[in-house]
Amino acid sequence: MTDIIITQTAPVLVAIDISKARDEVLIAIADKKRCRRLTVLNQLDDFNRLITSLACYGRPVRVAFEATGNYHRALAYHLAAAGFELKLVSSVALARTREALHNSWDKNDPKDAQVILHMMEIGNEQFYHDPLVRGTNDIQERSKTHDIVSKSKTELWHRVVAPSCGTEF
């Protein structure tokens, strides 16, 4: 009789706290107790170094991050092009989990990377869809433009109408 052996390799979990100039990266491997911490500048050379170091593990890689303005898009694009699985962490869920874990609202980038890693471990993450790849970029841009125009219209309305509606004594 033939023995069937199925080996399933646990993915390398990568939590990234993204900011304007640099990203804090926390890498967790299933076999090891300690996590590896990196700081990656928002530059192509650093993106390539990160991708090379993640590919060296020889395991599937799952990356999670919080979408921060547009700063996450370049790194996410390069990670997806390298074949890594991308996940998104909700900003609200991240804030609430950080509050619950650390009993504090205080935040910093390394702490946020730890919280993102914790959220990955418990499965509290969402799918990430690159708007350029999926073809939804135009819809997002129109939505942002509509939001800006609506806010400007309301602000202008309050400037024009509000002073004339004041009560006179």
From TrEMBL:
Residue ranges of every copy of the Transposase IS110-like N-terminal domain listed in the record:
14-121
InterPro entries for the chain = Transp_IS110-like_N, Transpos_IS110
Provide the leader sequence positions: none
Per UniProt, what is one GO molecular function of this protein?
A: DNA binding
Source domain of life is Bacteria
What are the transmembrane regions?
none
Gene Ontology BP term (one): DNA transposition
Q: What is this protein called?
A: IS110-family mobile element-associated protein
- The organism named in the record is Octadecabacter antarcticus 307
| Source lineage | Bacteria, Pseudomonadati, Pseudomonadota, Alphaproteobacteria, Rhodobacterales
